[in-house]
Write a structure and sequence with these properties.
The complex is a heterodimer of chains A (429) and B (327). With 429 residues, chain A is α+β, with helices and mostly antiparallel strands. Helix content of chain A is 29%, strand content 24%. The termini of chain A are far apart. In chain B, the strands form three sheets. Chain B has a seven-stranded mixed sheet, with helices on both faces. Chain B is α/β, with parallel strands linked by helices and 327 residues long. In chain B, helix 2 links the parallel strand 2 and strand 3. Classes of the chains: A alpha+beta (429), B alpha/beta (327). At the A-B interface, helix 2 of A face helix 8 of B.
């Protein structure tokens, strides 16, 4: 006599569990081999389970409605005249014993993996000092890492040159960050120049290098096109002259023309989002944020800090933002963060007296606009010659993204906004 | 969040994509009235009609070929191969046409087709219902091969595959269909193709795998955690082209790597992963790269005990991880 178990059968190829919907026998019943003993439901089929044995049902291990994995026992059957089924093999403990013995074995103590050797070299470690917890006393990478973590100061070598060692990533200021960027090896070996007697050799600063590489990249990658319009800003000049004294007294900042120009440009950018976009290889991305990069000259360099979300600022807000960026540049307080995220660049070349310029696009933006000097010129108004305050606006565009038509419309809109400035439609606050 | 089985996630993804985009249609053997032999397309025929859920003749080459033609004309076919084992008659269409059309036509034509195919063993399916076919297609540039492990990944990856503008082979593990259940958001989401996923973070041993084996690795990791062994598990999700960066990061994490597949060993996709690690991670490795796979025998046996012997088992995974941890 022996007790056999019936298991949940596999009823279909993707079926991994079944539900006993109904028992067809009860404890104490006698069944013949192949008699149905239960109905099983799966989400593919319903079927009866045939008994694998002849004998007496001794126990139902699951109830009706229970779901269980294929192979799990469902009931036991006492079978006449059979030998007891062999119980599960007793787990062999010999393996464990062998492992115990291995602990004493140190034959692998001096077999070092590449990772262990690298760490030892980088941190100037004597591997004999480190206990190995690996098989046969091998020193594992983790052993070394734990050792380094436990005695950090003593074993950190001074100038880790390996690429895996994390470099300090936060640069103290912007010039450090660009210097780091510029330190990357150049692709082309530069032509060698002989300097003659009396020549003054100027060593490149990191910032200069960064400017050079950014300009080169922009000119190499972006097919530039250029256009210019002239704008009559007599109204703007009058308006600003009228309020600048009061503004300085009240706010403690000078009110320049620049915030008015930025305000008009930002308004036009909102209407022409394609100008505020970037070429992304297989697509054009029109940026939602309007972040104005502002070209700001320092003695020996040029920075383009960013006025974030310029579309949310009033003329006063823009004036303050411009002043703050200019102060940060003068005092070398710009952080790399201040330079990130620009979507369109405004270049105030007029401040040098320029009346025309061809700016290079601030990569990867799609356009850059220069505001030239405001000059008094005789112009024809209503068939009469009048003296008006005139300014040229010059724009360079990425011709992959923008064509003449949309650029023209954008500039016309900027012109319209600027020429119609008056105290009624242009609040400072 | 609703809990769905792996196959229910397949059905939901198909349903959502068909209702979102009228160019999406399904074709295959018995996918219509019958709802597929595994019921993956259940209900779609009633909902979308016979023009969008098409029962085809038993001709895989035609299923793939019709799909390619429709895709080239702007449709988004989802072709079902009833079992991945039956894909080989369609291999010429898939390898020589679908994969190469964009290249051959200099970008004028493309084949935005998804081929779904159940694969994998351990279901008592014998020779013709148990094979892993991914390695056969995994050196054909122009194809993408996706193998999800969880219902969440199934939905996101299948939707991404259907929306992809090039051919994707989407292998579904047939044993996972009803075995694996998990939470699946009701909203519309996709998971980027070509990105592996860290399914478990650990520090002692890295397991890199895909499909059903992800679950074997997770089970083993749970058991080994009790012994103090911490296992890092990377689910490849897309087995071609491989996410090299993720493989390198995962290998560097612990320096001890177990590569796991239920496919036969030689020439399997994990062999490529081994090469990537060998090329990039020498100075991070703390143990030889290890592979656990099925034996290089011609087919999954039908006989139960032999099938058991052929299939990679959770205990084997556990033992291999432990052995690497102790190395």
């Amino acid at each position: 006599m022996s007790v056999e178990q019936m298991a949940m059968p596999q009823l279909g190829e993707s079926v991994t569990e079944g539900t006993i919907s109904q028992w067809l026998i009860s404890v104490g019943d006698t069944v013949n081999k192949y008699d149905p003993i239960a109905e099983v439901t799966t989400d593919k089929v319903n079927a009866e389970i045939p008994s694998s044995f002849s004998g007496k049902i001794t126990e139902l291990l699951v109830g009706e409605g229970d779901t269980l994995p294929v192979g799990e026992p469902i009931c036991t059957i006492e079978v006449e005249g059979a030998e007891p089924a062999v119980e599960k093999l007793v787990k062999n403990t010999a393996g464990k014993a062998a492992q115990k013995e291995e602990q004493q074995d140190t034959s692998m103590k001096r077999r070092y993996s590449p990772a262990v050797l690298r760490l030892a070299q980088e941190h100037d470690l004597d591997l004999d000092q480190i206990a190995g917890t690996g098989r046969s006393g091998r020193i594992t990478r983790k052993d070394v890492e734990l050792y380094i973590a436990s005695v950090p100061e003593e074993h950190t070598s001074e100038s880790p040159s390996d690429m895996h060692v994390p470099q300090p990533s936060a640069a103290g200021c912007f010039s450090e960050a660009v210097a780091k960027e510029a330190a990357k090896p150049a692709v082309h070996a530069p032509k060698t120049f002989e300097n003659e007697a009396g020549d003054h050799v100027v060593a490149l600063t990191g910032v200069r290098r960064a400017i050079a590489s950014n300009m080169l990249r922009s000119k190499h990658e972006i097919p530039h096109a250029w256009t210019m319009i002239e704008v009559d800003v007599t109204n703007l000049v009058n308006y600003r002259n009228q309020i600048k004294g009061a503004f300085l007294k009240k706010e403690g900042h000078k009110l320049t023309y620049l915030p008015f120009f930025i305000k008009a440009i930002v308004a036009a950018l909102k209407e022409f989002p394609r100008i505020n976009s970037t070429w992304a290889g297989d697509k054009i991305i029109e940026k939602k944020a309007v972040n104005i990069s502002l070209a700001v000259a320092a003695d020996e360099a040029l920075y383009v800090p960013v006025i974030k979300n310029a579309d949310e600022k009033s003329i006063k807000g823009l004036a303050f933002a411009v002043d703050e960026l200019a102060a940060n540049v003068r005092e070398n307080r710009l952080s790399p963060d201040d330079m990130q995220g620009g979507t369109f660049t405004v270049n105030n070349t007029g401040s040098f007296g320029s009346i025309q310029s061809q700016p290079i696009i601030n990569y990867p933006q799609a356009a850059i606009l220069s505001i030239e000097s405001i000059v008094k010129r005789p112009v024809v108004v209503n068939n009469m010659i009048a003296i008006r305050d005139m300014v040229n606006l010059c724009i360079s565009i990425d011709h992959r993204v923008l064509d003449g038509l949309i650029t023209g419309r954008f500039l016309a809109r900027v012109k319209e906004l600027l020429e119609n400035i008056n105290p009624e439609n242009t609040p400072i606050y | 969040m609703p809990v769905l089985s792996y196959i229910e996630a397949v059905t939901q993804a198909l349903d959502e994509e068909m209702s979102r985009d009228e160019n999406v249609f399904v074709l295959g053997e018995d996918v219509g009235k019958r709802g597929g032999v595994f019921q993956a397309t259940k209900g779609l025929y009633d909902k979308y009609g016979e023009n969008r859920v098409i029962d085809t003749p038993l001709a895989e080459s035609a299923i793939a070929g019709v799909g390619i033609g429709a895709a080239m004309y702007g449709m988004r076919p989802v072709a079902e191969m009833q079992f991945s084992d039956f894909m080989l008659p369609a291999a010429n269409q898939i390898i020589s046409e679908a994969a190469k059309t964009r290249y051959r036509s200099n970008n004028d034509w493309s084949v935005p087709m998804t081929i779904r195919a159940p694969f994998g063993g351990g279901v008592h399916g014998g020779l013709y219902h148990s094979q892993s076919m991914e390695a056969i297609f995994a050196n054909v540039p122009g194809l993408k091969i996706v193998i999800p492990s969880t219902p969440y990944d199934v939905k996101g990856l299948l939707k991404a595959s259907i929306r992809d503008n090039d051919p994707v082979i989407f292998f579904e593990h047939k044993r996972a269909y009803r075995l694996i259940k998990g939470e699946v958001p009701v909203d519309d989401y996709t998971i980027p193709l070509g990105k592996a996923d860290v399914k478990r973070d650990g520090t002692d041993v890295t397991v890199i795998t895909y499909g059903l084996m992800v679950h074997y690795a997770m089970q083993a990791a749970d058991k080994l955690a009790v012994e103090g062994i911490s296992t890092h598990i990377l689910d490849l999700r897309t087995v071609y082209p491989l996410d090299k960066e993720a493989i390198i990061d995962a290998a560097r994490k612990t320096g001890k790597v177990l590569l796991l597949t239920e496919d036969t060993k030689e020439g399997s996709v994990i062999s490529e992963a081994a090469a990537i690690i060998a090329e990039n991670c020498l100075f991070d490795l703390d143990a030889p790269i290890r592979r656990l796979a099925a034996p290089d025998a011609p087919a999954m046996p039908y006989a139960g005990p032999l099938e058991q012997a052929f299939m990679v088992k959770p205990e084997q995974v556990e033992n291999e991880i432990r052995d690497l941890a102790e190395f």
